[in-house]
Queue: 4 jobs
Job 1
Amino acid sequence: MMGEYIELANYKVISFDKIPSTQTFAHNMIADGRGADHVAILADAQSAGRGRYKRTWISHHGNLYVSFIYACEERDARLAYAVGVAIAETLISFGVVPTIKWPNDILIDNKKVSGTLIEYSGRFVVVGIGINIKSNPTVKASYKTTKLDNYVSVTRDELLNKLMRNLDKWRRSDFCVVRTRWTELAAGLNHNVKYRGEPVELIGINENGALILRRESHYLLVYGDEITMS
């Protein structure tokens, strides 16, 4: 399978019309010894896109589907917040007003417009990002989605270029700066959410990237579990 190679914003981009999954392709590159820092796998469409918890990511033409490979010696929970802020700031630069649902889903008017999948592989981390531009999937009535075309006119390449620059900026930023900006953009802060089916209050994140929840007088630190907005 051959892709088109281009250089863009300090990244080596491998672009495809359609592949099963940019995330899987990135992992295969790493497994084959071809993984390198600042490589991006881009596809116009995916036949087997996936999100967190192995959920299907519906991937029609017209949206942004990209997986970034970064050198990474160890897992870092703080990365998810830097990525979330980078995506949000990218949308803000085009005049959109987003919020971030923990840890890095991007919402507009409480509807999901972007999702991220972060997976570690050897000495690398693969950051998969999908942003709805021209279309948004109908999943179920309670799971609302939207697309950028409802709010602003932007091309995929314009979005990608700005996103790459913001990812580099926020990944390099001190986490105290990332944490402050994430908190400013966070959806549901100081409101009740559900954690493992139980209502808790969403307080914020700590200096290590743990989510801080409060159940009555008890505080919980959460890293990998999913929360649901009430």
Job 2
Amino acid sequence: MKKKMMAILVMAAMALPVCAPAEGIRIDGTIEAVKTQSILAPHSGRVGDYAVRAGDELRAGEELFTISAQKVYADFDGRITGVFAQPGDSAASVEERYGALCYMERDTLYAADCTTSGAASDNENKIVHVGEIVHICSESNDKRQGTAVVTSVSGKNYTLEVLSYVDIRLSEDIEVYREENFRNASCIGRGDIRRLDPVAVTAQGYVRAVHVTDGQMVSRGDLLFEIVPDALEDMKGGDGSVDMPADGVVLSISAERGAQIDKDARMATVCRREDMQLVCRADEEDLSAIEPGMTVMVTLDAYRDAPAEGTVVNIAAASAEDGSSAGFDVTIRLKDNALVRVGMHATAEF
């Protein structure tokens, strides 16, 4: 009896279907920019020419755009004396405290306030012309001499800027001549020497960049400061360059070459490389086999011979209906894969 029962059980077991090992889940998806960053204009200005295009991959720190600034130049040859402004400063605040962003002294430090009283009797000697070069001599010592230029005229009075001199001294009384040999017939008046005040360098706006240092010699036309109309974030200046914040790709460009742009206007949209991730649509019946943190193999359609390792970082909490069954987006971060590009198709194996 026992043998007969055992035979029946064996025959029943042989009649049952054999279950093959469960196969892994394969889900197709697309590389997406799951997180993007807007590149905003740090201040108002005009957008310069640029070479970057949507789709370009750049390294952190590479230049995307430039924005122009108002430039403040030296009006004459001289020495910088006192640089009070620093990048990010409000020009108005600096000038309220110090009177200027910086000061400039001319190569010569002397001027003279003069009058035609005492000039030679010839009527022409009583008419002084702005811009003419004259010769000066100390009333007390004719070895102290120099040359000067007439900078202003008001009636009988005029001012000089001393261009060169030998031992001229402050508050010294001088005589002024048109001729280098100091002939009395060319005398056009007299005056006294005074200190030529430093010239205040001023501007309106905020300091983006400072190009000079205290004591530096500059020439007329040299760049001193760059000024922008808007307050700079974190009191930082710069060189007008708007750079890529991290390794990644440029998704779109909003800035227009040569156009005026306002502060905080969007210039471009970028995505960090680490935020270029695979998004797959998983059916609800497959969710039980997928969980955050699990490792999966990913094959890019464009590089089937170079499978990559990935990690599930997110499973959507709500379904995205496709018309037939509920689907849930599964986001997978790929491990250090330089081949990945936004828009690529790939397959994940769970």
Job 3
Amino acid sequence: MNLSGNQRRVYLLALGLLVLTVALVCAWMLWPKPATSPARSEPQSAEPSAQPLDAGEPTGASAGAPAEAGGDAQKVSTIVYYQDNYGYLVPVMCSVPMEDGIAKATLNRMVQSVGNDMQAARLGLRTVLPENTKIDLDIANGLARIDLSKEVLNMADAAAESNMVSAIVQALTEFDSVDRVEFLIDGQKRQTLTHGTSVAGTFTRGDINLESAEPTVSLSAAEPMTLYFPADSGAVIVPVTRMVRQGYDVNTAVMELAKGPSNQDMLESVVPAGCGLIDVNVENGVAKLNFTGEFVNLVQNSDGGRMALKALVLTCTQFEGVDSVEIYVDGVKYDAGDLGVPTFMNVADSIVYDYIQTQSAMIFDFD
């Protein structure tokens, strides 16, 4: 094959791009799971009788028991806290290799790195701890003492600091062995981080993604309630804490859910526009939700309303005595498909699968 000088250069450039593409594809396929090896060894408890590190399993999850036996090692389930593009914290159940110190391994997955960021991006989410953060963790008698390296003093703003602190506390208190969290920064106690976020004292599990209270709700007569909304990406469910009048029940929760999220630009509404709630009745553990006719427009969502129905089920079944949900439209039972209670609000493998299914349906829907 005789090539001119320009043709030869074009040919070599194209060949180089092809080789680079193949190399990138191979690297992607062979890329290891996000590293969880700590940069510093875990300190031993000062108390000889202290409980073993990370005893117990995340509440609401089956961590501590094998999640799958395939691959080179058994895996367990753990709850990792990410954030979405708007700063909402999003808990995700992930499968990780079984190892001693699973709580620390969980936190290490929340640190910015190439591997961790790639895993988060597959879920449409982002990590919450800054790059190169080193973590030491000791758990004894219900107290998790966490020592974070100085990188956490270089976060962008107070919102990022607050999200990091909240995500760490939420992730650690998922474990039965932890009910309090204490922070050290580079081996020292501090009152605040760089932008004023408090790290003093001990922290207990708090309200996640707290909304601003409505002016009509008196804080002295209010209490927090958890609602679930689909993220605007349609890939994950976001738990939101809303202050409502004391003594609320499942009927109140569905009414609040029907109002939609406080910021419609960041989260998706669960019920279609114009849809009203007629009533809610609980019979033999079944919450029967009766909506007006506009509810049928739910199928017009890109996922056919699947995430909205999941949010409804999660919101209702958090109440004692509610085991399942049935949907009615103008008093007639509505075929909503499988309304089984999810294992967890967000499961990593399911998120990726569902996202691919949704995008494929949108691409091939030519009607």
Job 4
Amino acid sequence: MYISQTAAQTIVEEIGREINEHINFMDEEGYIVASTDPARLGTLHTGAKRVIEERLPELYITKEMENATTRKGINLPITIRGEIVGVIGITGEKERVVGYGNIVRRMTEIMVEDNRLKDRKRYDRRVRYRFIEEWIAKSDLSYNRNFVERGYRLGIDVERPRRALVVHFRRYSQLCGTLEGQKRLEEMEATIRHFVDKEEGVLYLREPPKQICLVDACSDDKMRELACHIRELVYGKYQEKVLIGIDAGHGSVHIRQMCDQAQKAVENGRDSDIIFYGDLCVELFLDEISDKAMEEYLDKLFPETEAEEVDSYMNLIAVFFEQAGSIGKMADALYMHKNTIQYKLKKLESLSGKDIRTPEGAGIFYMALQFYKRTKNDTNICYR
């Protein structure tokens, strides 16, 4: 069939609403594949079959011509590029339906052609997606000539240096849980795709739960600008937040490595919404440490300490690193007196046996803060 059954049903329903008559859509063999009367679906329309076989410009079925599968009304060929691809039928009295004939036929042909083009675009997009998925999955740095030529035919130069950007929706898991949420996700994904499709030198791949943008090699500033546009577009239209990871920034043809870097950035950059792989430090190996080992580390550093007290110390530690250890700035951030800050740091040293103001202690407590965030899944520690 020239278009999908779903598209054909959409057409008959839309036209039926406009003219307030029953509409049938017959395929190239004369079978009813879409109708405003569900009882007629799947039956052979003998009038439509005659229109196709005899290439009639139109056929009106009179009351005398009616049978079990064919009702009175007008039937008109749908012609696309000189080929009859189906028949549109309007059920009703001749004096009512004949006047609609040419208008309905032309409307149908336009809508069929439009749907055909949309289907073709969707097919082309799926082909490109499959190629990009295969490209990303490749672990080697060299591509054989056949693969390179396949890319050229799709308008993709796999030998051009690129960069990778990965987008995650913060509420992805929550939205996936409902039909309404899934629809919202689809709309947001389509919005991002439409945006990046207009950007020169950007290839897009939807790969739930993430979306990947492969960008012609450029500076960090350009990548950040693209990321900011995506973040603001999604928040401005849907009030939803995203996390965006960006690769190390060397510009390479090794797509898989760049995508892995961008993915690692988005998974580990917990304190920001746009994260560069190059800004990650201890986050690079946190995934290699088990939650059990992290919890044992914290228990050893804070022996026999209630959870609420540990929370309080962690806020203090977070502010210490945020303010580069400045007691004055910590006091301002926490709305406390400097002496109170000094007292709390001393108490922390007494409890743990480690002084955060020494190089050794700073390293120990920085790791503790990262472990705490990971085990608590706390992306934004409250500093108040």
